[in-house]
């Protein structure tokens, strides 16, 4: 499937997934288990309920939309993420021998996706913010447009990603209207064009929250390279996107309606929401 985004109609072949956050709001669990590997529910091919790490769910959604080149940005204490994305066919064979055929088949399917993909691993030496984590993938991105996601958030139904990828602009943001957007990046729209973005504003200019799925041009890396720390003392991706807007780049919004749900695993409350949401969907409710 051809997935087109830029005016030059480049195919999106590369995806960057950030997985370097410390997960401090979920301690002590995240002392040893990266929050990106926390389990959520999923529905198997035969209707069975499965349990998968949130990062695996994101990877599989991207894979299904044709992405085959991935850069996963990790940090200290995230070796388990790399281990999870390392195929272990001996374990699959063992599961089959002990009568766990369904689990063996599902794990084998995941391993086959990994082996059909190219995955680059980059470490963020210090947690300097989402924007800095994205910048760590500069060499991987090169001069191509790319898909970006934070490794702790899920959105359903999965067709949201196809909508995001099939734009015709310089960049595309995924938005959802929320009651209180102060914990999010917030966008101001003129039609479907994004005219302003601001990170975690005390007085939000709109209720349009930016969800962490984007299509961005390689130009964003040059902006991030010169970016100064913003809110929270961190390099914010939102500030870099605002620079693109000020340069006259065409940044468009994909706004989710009530058919869609989203949740992250960043806090105990949001993790509970993510579990409830994915369990309900895995049951076909």
What would you say about this model in short?
This protein is an alpha/beta fold. The protein is 31% helix and 26% strand. Strands 1, 4, 5, 6, 8, 9, 10, 11 and 12 form a nine-stranded mixed β-sheet that branches.
Fold and architecture overview:
By secondary structure, this protein is of the alpha/beta class. It has a single domain, classed as Spore Coat Polysaccharide Biosynthesis Protein SpsA, Chain A, CATH 3.90.550. It is 31% helix and 26% strand. It has helices spanning 54-64, 79-84, 89-97, 101-115, 130-135, 138-141, 160-165, 219-225, 237-246, 268-282; strands at 14-18, 39-43, 49-53, 69-74, 118-123, 146-150, 153-156, 171-177, 185-190, 193-199, 208-216, 251-256, 261-264.
> According to CATH, what is the class?
Alpha Beta
Sheet/helix structural class: alpha/beta
Helix content: 25-40%
CATH superfamily: Spore Coat Polysaccharide Biosynthesis Protein SpsA, Chain A
Number of helices: 10
As a whole number of angstroms, the C-alpha radius of gyration is 19 Å
Described by strand count, sense and barrel closure, the largest sheet is:
9 strands, mixed
Terminal Cα span = 30 Å
User: What is the CATH fold-level name?
Assistant: Spore Coat Polysaccharide Biosynthesis Protein SpsA, Chain A
* Second CATH tier, the architecture: Alpha-Beta Complex
Give the mean pLDDT: 89
**Shape descriptor:** globular
> Could you name the ranges where pLDDT drops below 50 across 5 or more consecutive residues?
1-10
Oligomeric state of the chains present here: single chain
